[in-house]
Amino acid sequence: MPLINDRDRAQIEKIFTDSLVDPVKMVYFTIPTSALIVPGRENCESCNDVQQLVEELAELSPKVSVEVHNFEREREVAQRYDVDRVPALVVASGDESRVRYFGAPAGYEFSTLLSDIQALSTHETALSQETRDALAAIPEPIHIQVFVTPT
Questions:
Q1: 84, 114, 134, 150: which one has the fewest Cβ atoms less than 10 Å from its Cβ?
Q2: Strand, helix or coil at 77?
Q3: Reduced to 3 states, what is the DSSP secondary structure of residue 93?
Q4: Residue 61 phi, psi dihedral angles, 5° rounding
Q5: Measured distance between the N- and C-terminal CA atoms of the chain, rounded to whole angstroms
Q6: Which residue has the higher pLDDT, 18 or 39?
Q7: Model pTM score
Q8: Nearest Cα to 51, choosing from 2, 87, 10?
Q9: Please, what is the Cα angle at 118 between 123 and 98, to 5 degrees?
Q10: CA nearest neighbour of 58 among 31, 81, 24
Q11: Which domains, ranges and CATH numbers included, belong to the chain?
Q12: Measured between alpha carbons, how far is 99 from 128 in angstroms, rounded to an integer?
């Protein structure tokens, strides 16, 4: 059963058609679920749902693709994207500008995910010129983390 209903699917497809310019790649890290419980093995309760969500999004535009990686078996790929837990989603443009999501991009985060896909594809953000100038004045790379909770 699809996670994105038909009405939302049509709306997202139109948004993607109207706004996406360059390709965007979603790199997803998961631990496949197993019916076998193994002590010491990580389990990921939401990994299957998040994978289904990103695959449904990728179906809505030829400019959006998805790569799925097994976090336990492909640690070197995870390290390249600075991923240390699952579920993890890296949304990247050709120039490797990227946004990382840890956990399920559901609720309010889903609309943010759609906006990030658009911003990475167009290489444009809604930042004011004043903010752009202030960021350009930072002399070295910085790491920004934003934490979001449902409350």
A1: 150
A2: helix
A3: strand
A4: -155, 140
A5: 28
A6: 18
A7: 0.85
A8: 87
A9: 60
A10: 24
A11: 6-136 (3.40.30.10)
A12: 20
Q: Are 63 and 24 in contact (CB under 8 A)?
A: yes
Residue 115 CA, distance from chain mean position: 11
Average pLDDT score over the chain: 90
SS3 per-residue string spanning 96-114 = CCEEEEECCCCCHHHHHHH
Token representation of residue 45: 């309760």
What lies within 8 Å, CB to CB, of 148 at 6+ separation is 108, 109
Cα–Cα distance, 21 to 117 (Å, whole number): 10
* pLDDT tops 90 at residue 7: yes
Helix (H) or strand (E) holding 26: strand 24-30
State which amino acid sits at residue 42.
Answer: E
Query: Which pLDDT value is given to residue 32?
Result: 83
Structure tokens at 74: 């492909």
Token reading at 10: 């049509």
Q: Residue 51 — φ and ψ, nearest 5°?
A: -60, -45
